[in-house]
């Protein structure tokens, strides 16, 4: 952890802020370096410290756990459309059939594994992203980290999601079976032991590879598109610089950028999401067999509810995550700016 902290002290995302924050000598962020804020303030921890990563993990837990649990009804209908399109032909039909057969209570089937699984995923997703972002930026150096920042966002988010999905997979397997498999127990405490009894640990991880195929492209788009959209909104849409915006105004920008990123996330990751849902609903199936059965058009079943769900979900996640960072007093660097050394090189090249 100390090596991560040392890397954070040299991070281009920290040095590019070039804004002063009000701190005591004992609680200074990094000697001779400062970080941006909308106004001068004291932070609760140093950028890149173990406490910083832990609190980012708390923000990820709340953002992913709360949002995914709240959209459980829509997620359940989406999964049923993917696994049984003949019966659940559309969002409206899916809700009608589900309520008619199971009542209103049936709409929240799978809420427990959803809450647990996505909370664990959120801790890893956001906590590791912050860590990998700092490590990769430090490895590239200040100028390259700025020039190739989109690639940096993609690499950091992919690395974080790799570990996040390992945490998510067991609960995802339980959730999909609870929601889509006829005769399967309706609760996590009954369903998880049954999976282990019938299939062992493999039952919890058999869809891990398709989960990576779904979640890694999704998360790469989620973080890279969000970071670039925030940068473009402040540059071309927001009528004043970020450091002159209130925290409320900054959170509005965060929500807007999150929704835009969410729409692209849903489209990029949807085919793999359909494969994951179908695999977990059919005992003994493999990713290859499932993909053959679904065909080219079949993998796009349930796209409309997923765009609605993921767009709203991603916007809410970024809003909650950023709000938690504000609430906990964490450093929040602004979008990166071109380093002075690179500006000087470009200016010299023009003369």
TrEMBL record:
The GO cellular component terms are: mitochondrial inner membrane
Instruction: Give the Solcar repeat ranges.
Output: 51-135, 148-232, 249-327
State one Pfam family annotation: Mito_carr
- Give the location in the cell: Mitochondrion inner membrane
Keywords tagged on the record: Membrane, Mitochondrion, Mitochondrion inner membrane, Repeat, Transit peptide, Transmembrane, Transmembrane helix, Transport
One GO biological process term is: mitochondrial phosphate ion transmembrane transport
Q: How does it sit in the membrane?
A: Multi-pass membrane protein
Residue span of the signal peptide, if any?
A: none
Provide any one GO MF term from the record.
Answer: phosphate transmembrane transporter activity
The job of this chain, per UniProt, is described as: Transport of phosphate groups from the cytosol to the mitochondrial matrix.
The entry sums up its family as follows:
Belongs to the mitochondrial carrier (TC 2.A.29) family.
Q: What is this protein called?
A: Phosphate carrier protein, mitochondrial
């Amino acid at each position: 952890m100390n090596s991560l902290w040392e890397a954070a002290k040299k991070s281009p995302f920290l040095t590019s802020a070039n804004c002063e924050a009000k701190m005591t000598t004992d609680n200074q962020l990094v000697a001779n370096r400062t970080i941006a804020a909308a106004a001068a303030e004291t932070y609760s921890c140093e950028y890149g410290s173990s406490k910083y990563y832990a609190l980012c993990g708390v923000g990820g837990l709340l953002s992913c756990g709360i949002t995914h649990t709240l959209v459980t009804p829509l997620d359940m209908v989406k999964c049923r459309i993917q696994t049984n399109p003949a019966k659940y032909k559309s969002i409206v039909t899916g809700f009608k059939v589900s309520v008619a057969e199971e009542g209103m209570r049936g709409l929240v089937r799978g809420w427990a594994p959803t809450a647990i699984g996505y909370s664990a995923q959120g801790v890893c997703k956001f906590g590791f992203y912050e860590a990998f972002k700092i490590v990769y930026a430090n490895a590239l150096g200040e100028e390259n980290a700025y020039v190739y920042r989109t690639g940096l966002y993609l690499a950091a988010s992919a690395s974080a999601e790799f570990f996040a999905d390992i945490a998510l997979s067991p609960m995802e397997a339980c959730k999909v079976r609870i929601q889509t498999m006829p005769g399967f127990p309706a609760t996590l405490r009954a369903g998880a032991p049954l999976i282990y009894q019938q299939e062992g640990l493999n039952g919890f991880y058999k869809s891990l590879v398709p989960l990576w195929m779904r979640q890694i492209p999704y998360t790469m788009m989620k973080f890279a598109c969000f970071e670039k959209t925030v940068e473009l909104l402040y540059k071309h849409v927001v009528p004043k610089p970020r450091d002159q915006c209130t925290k409320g105004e900054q959170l509005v920008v965060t929500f807007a950028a999150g929704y835009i990123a969410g729409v692209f996330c849903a489209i990029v990751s949807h085919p793999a999401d359909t494969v994951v849902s179908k695999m977990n609903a059919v005992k003994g199936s493999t990713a290859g067999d499932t993909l053959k059965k679904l065909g080219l058009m079949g993998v796009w079943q349930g796209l409309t509810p997923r765009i609605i769900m993921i767009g709203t979900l991603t916007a809410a996640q970024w809003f909650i995550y950023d709000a938690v960072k504000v609430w906990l007093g964490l450093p929040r660097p602004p979008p990166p700016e071109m380093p002075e050394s690179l500006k000087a090189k470009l200016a010299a090249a023009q003369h």
